[in-house]
Amino acid sequence: MDPINKTPVYYETAAYARENGELELFRLSHRTNIACKNDIQDAISRHFDGMHLDKETAQEVLDQYGAERVSIVLAATVQYKSWDGRFSSSNKDWAFSVHLPEGQSASGLDRRSDYIVDSHPAVLDGFIWQARREIRERQNPTVKKDAIQEAAPAAKAAKRKTHDIER
């Protein structure tokens, strides 16, 4: 399914964009990442009843922004908050495998911090599981939901891995 918002993800730095006349593309992509973050937070807030997150919460955000942008926003969040033990090691491993846009500004600030999701980490971890499952199903419709759901408990039982940023 094609995303409603078709703004392409811009992976280069602002300096590169400025030098190549692509600054507006850079800015538009960055603003779209921020909008995606806000919509993820909104979806979580509307679909979390205090104990459970609706099973289809991630679908609406993926429908709007597509797998690439949602993955970037979620991966940036987990990488930024990698110290937080409420994110599963499986989601941390996934997040560190995602290629993120360049975020360093000329002043040394990381612009990716603008699109870090602020939802409760334990609830966000569940959202990330949903998003990853939905992305896999969209990419390979023959994958059975049962097989994906069986992998989640096994991943929790696996030994916790540390990432370079945590050491």
What's the short version?
With 167 residues, this protein is mainly α. It has helices at residues 14-19, 23-47, 57-80, 89-97, 121-139, 145-157. The mean pLDDT is 87.
What features would you describe in this structure?
The chain has 167 residues and is mainly α. It has one domain (14-157). Helix content is 57%, strand content 0%. The chain is built from six helices and no strands. Helix 2 crosses helix 3 (57-80) and helix 3 crosses helix 4. The mean pLDDT is 87.
Could you name the key traits of this structure?
single chain; 167 residues; mainly alpha; 6 helices
Draw up the topology in text.
Elements: H1 14-19, H2 23-47, H3 57-80, H4 89-97, H5 121-139, H6 145-157
Helix pairs in contact: 2-3, 3-4, 3-5
State the separation between the terminal residues, measured CA to CA.
39 Å
Q: What count of helical segments does DSSP give?
A: 6
Largest sheet: none
Q: How many strands in all?
A: 0
Q: What form results from the Cα inertia axes?
A: globular
Which structural class should the secondary elements be placed in?
Answer: mainly alpha
Instruction: Report Rg.
Output: 16 Å
Order of helices and strands: HHHHHH
Measured by DSSP, the beta-strand proportion falls in: under 5%
Low-pLDDT windows of residues: none
Number of domains in the coordinates? Answer: 1
Mean pLDDT figure: 87
Helical proportion, percent range: 55-70%
